[in-house]
Amino acid sequence: MVDKRTFHSILRELDLSRNQIGDSGVTEISSLLRNSQCTLQILRFSDCSITEEGYKALASALRSNPSHLIELDLTGNDPGQSGVKELNDLLQDGLCSLKTIRFLKSPAAEEACEYLTGVLGKSPLLLKELDLSGDKLGDLDGEKLSALLMDSHSKLEKIMLNNCDLTEKSCSVLATVLSSKTILKEMNLNNSRLLDSGVKEICEGLKNPVCELKILKLSDCSITEEGYKALASALRSNPSHLIELDLTGNDPGQSGVKELSDLLQDPNCQLKTLRFLGPAADEACQYVTGIVGKNPLLLRELNLSEHELGDTRVNQIAALLQDKHCQLNTLIENKLGNPGMKIILTLFENVQCRLEKLK
């Protein structure tokens, strides 16, 4: 590939970018880098189909002979799980002359990486989880963040953007990420007021056959019936990836719960956990489902006349009745007792409770 005599002469820079040399070619060149006569200072391997094995070979060679190479370009390759760390560690080695390792393909991704390294104190290329909740996102442009997430050197599997001021455009950018071949498995957007318009953008990404997202958390995002329908449609269109969806604290309207609950009965759909309720309300929901054989979120009337309800259970049912996902408007012949009756009667003053009748 490269003549050894040339390699060991006065050659200072070698650019092999956009050649399909693969790991075998890199391993061969790595053996030349080990030689004490090698004085190469700049080596470029952009888009050379190199994988984790090739990265390890380069790291090993530069540990063996650390005194010459100062710049290494590996943009457009795939480092696997450990490739970035193998080489990044060399920058901390006092014996190694390496000053610049270029991993990221685009300037936008590079900017995002530098910004996040400053905020987090660690390169995001070394992380599997990225928490930018609250104000950590700062002035970072969403498109720059997406460029980083879509780069093959990003090994992020989970991103948290809770309590962020996300716009419809932000959601469109995230949809682009979901529509690309990333290893992102979990996205948390809780308390971000996405509205239905933002959710619809996210759904465009969920529909894409390359999307491999497993967990999506959209708690308290001001989503209504329209957004629920969009999610149901997206998951029918591409049912093979998402296994958990959290929609607590949103308002499903008349049909939102049923639209999504029906997916749990679809053998083609991988969705296993659909979270609508907070802990207390969820306890009540499971209790009632076990007794009446139906999900109370899909009922308008509830009869628990054959069951004594203690204070704890009454409080749980009260929490259920106050949740926007609950459409119950009539309780029939329920053994509430005086304390329980007082708790239930206060619900008539709650605007979120749909309860109209006690029989």
UniProtKB/TrEMBL annotation:
<protein>
    <submittedName>
        <fullName>Uncharacterized protein</fullName>
    </submittedName>
</protein>
<dbReference type="InterPro" id="IPR001611">
    <property type="entry name" value="Leu-rich_rpt"/>
</dbReference>
<dbReference type="InterPro" id="IPR032675">
    <property type="entry name" value="LRR_dom_sf"/>
</dbReference>
<keyword id="KW-0677">Repeat</keyword>
<dbReference type="Pfam" id="PF13516">
    <property type="entry name" value="LRR_6"/>
</dbReference>
<keyword id="KW-0433">Leucine-rich repeat</keyword>
<dbReference type="InterPro" id="IPR051261">
    <property type="entry name" value="NLR"/>
</dbReference>
